Amino acid sequence: MSEAEAVRVIGLWASPFVIRVLIALKLKGVKYELVEEVVGKKSELLLRSNPVHKKIPVLLHHGKPISESLIIVQYIDEVWSSDAPAFLHADPYTRAVQRFWAQYVDDKIAPAFLVLRGLTNGDKDEAAAQVSTALEHLEEAFVKCSQGKHYFGGDRIGFLDLVFGSHLGWFRAVEKISGIKLLEEEKYPEITAWADRFCTHHAVKDVMPETDKLVEFSTNSALKAKPTTN
C-alpha cells in the first residue's frame, strides 16, 4: 500500500468540513487520496465507513474510519505529531479556548450560510445578523489568541485557523448568492487581514475553491440535496 493509499478522505471538494481536513493533511505533509462523493448520492464506501451519521468527511487511515471533521483534525494532529508543529497549543487552557471558538464557528456560521444559500428555511436577514455577531466575537478572539501574530495559532496556522478558515471560500460565495455583504474590512480589519493571509498560505491556496465555482456548485447541485457534511 502506497503512502497516499494509506490515507483516504471521503468527501466533496466544496465542503468546508472536508477542506479543513485536506489543509490539515497538507500542513503535516501527509499524502492522501480524495474520494469524491456525488451530490445527492451516498456511496457504499461512505455508508460503510460512517454508518451512524452517513456524512462526509470520513478519514480512512489504513482502512480504519474516523468521522466528524473536528475529531479528524485532532486525530491528524496526534498521529502525525512529529511531522509538523501541533495545531493545538500545549497549554490545556489555551487548547480549551481554541476548541470553544472552533465549535462556536461551526455552530453559528455554518447554519447561517445554509439559510443564506437557500438550503434551509429561515430569515436571511436574521442569518446575516448571526454571522455579523459571530464575526464581532471572532475579531476580539483573534486579538487575544494571536497575541499580535499572524494567525489564531500565533506564528502558524493552528486548530482554530483551520476550522474558521475552511469557511472562507463560502463567505464570498454566500455574499454573491445572497447579495448581503458579510466580511467587511471596515468592521473586521483583523479578520479580513487574517483571511487574506490564510487563503494565500501554500497549504491552503490549492485546496480553497474559487468563489465562482462555489456559486455554480450551490446553484446547480447543492440546492437539490440536503447538506451531508460535518
From TrEMBL:
Q: Identify which top EC class this enzyme belongs to.
A: transferase
Question: Where's the GST N-terminal domain?
Answer: 5-84
The answer to whether the entry has keyword Cytoplasm is no
The UniProt keyword set, sorted, is:
Transferase
| Alphabetized Pfam families for the sequence | GST_C (PF00043), GST_N (PF02798)
The yes or no answer to whether the keyword Transit peptide is present is: no
| CDD domains reported in the protein's UniProt record | GST_C_Tau (cd03185), GST_N_Tau (cd03058)
What EC designation does it have? 2.5.1.18
GO BP annotations listed: glutathione metabolic process; toxin catabolic process
InterPro entries named among the record's database cross-references: Glutathione-S-Trfase_C-like, Glutathione-S-Trfase_C_sf, Glutathione_S-Trfase, Glutathione_S-Trfase_N, GST_C, GST_C_Tau, Omega/Tau-like, Thioredoxin-like_sf
Give the catalytic activity.
RX + glutathione = an S-substituted glutathione + a halide anion + H(+)
Superkingdom as given in the UniProt entry:
Eukaryota
Molecular-function GO terms, alphabetical: glutathione transferase activity
An example of a Gene Ontology cellular component annotation for this protein is: cytoplasm
Residue ranges annotated for the GST C-terminal domain, each copy included: 91-228
Note the PANTHER family from the entry.
GLUTATHIONE S-TRANSFERASE, GST, SUPERFAMILY, GST DOMAIN CONTAINING, GLUTATHIONE TRANSFERASE
Q: Which family does it belong to?
A: Belongs to the GST superfamily. Tau family.
Protein name, as recorded: glutathione transferase
